[in-house]
Amino acid sequence: MEPLMNARFFGGISSFISWNVSDNGPNEFVTAVYEAVDVLGQILNRSLQEKTSLSGRALASHALNRSFAAELREVFIDMFGERKSLHCVADFNVNNNTFQNVMVYKTSEHSFTAFDKGEIDWSGSMGAPPNEPRCGYTGDRCDTSQHWIGATVGKVLGAAAGVLLAGPGFLVLALRNSVTLDLYVAVKPRDTQ
Predict the structure, then answer these.
(1) Residue boundaries of the structural domains of the chain
(2) Which of 154, 130, 150 is nearest to 141 (CA)?
(3) Which of the ends of the chain has fewer CB neighbours closer than 10 A, N or C?
């Protein structure tokens, strides 16, 4: 009898492993390992079919700048051997309190692909976010002629607040020191001769 089929063996393991199952989908780390093994299998299969060398350098050359159709999703490896992850735009579904992918960025094609999930519910009242920052990516589209007014007003108000807060503090400190001196002179015993 194989050791894996032994009930005592499974009983011993079950005390160390949590068997809780959830509906959250597969664990992302387990998925990444599974995809890596799948990609390696595709590379080895291609190398064997082409009867090329199975050295590490030859296998790596089969992987660079290439997209692999893994079972769960597309995996793209760039020219440096880095795995490019999928970037998704997700929409929060208020009916079942989950996020649903509505767009995915395909690295190999450098473009977004939309899923037919209906209209995106953008949070806030302004609708979809703008394609770039208000002043542009380099800041050259902002009107800087009015910024000096705000900076000057801020500096003046800051100085006024400092004077208003520090002035009474110095006044209290000065009065407290003078009262202490007056009290010391008044209580000092006289010389008796």
Answers:
(1) 21-84, 86-126, 153-184
(2) 130
(3) C
How far CA 105 is from CA of 110, 185, 192, in Å, comes to 7, 83, 98
What is the rounded distance in angstroms from the CA atom of residue 15 to the CA atom of residue 187?
Answer: 82
| DSSP per-residue codes, 149-165 | HHHHHHHHHHHHHHHHH
pLDDT in tens, 66-89: 888 877 777 888 888 887 766 777
Q: What is the pLDDT of residues 166-177, one digit of tens each?
A: 877 777 777 776
Name the pairing type of β-strands 111-114 and 98-106: antiparallel
The helix-helix angle for 56-63 and 28-50 (nearest 10°) equals 110
Cβ proximity of 90 and 115 under 8 Å: no
Could you tell me which residues come within 8 angstroms of residue 73 by beta carbon, excluding any fewer than 6 positions away?
35, 86
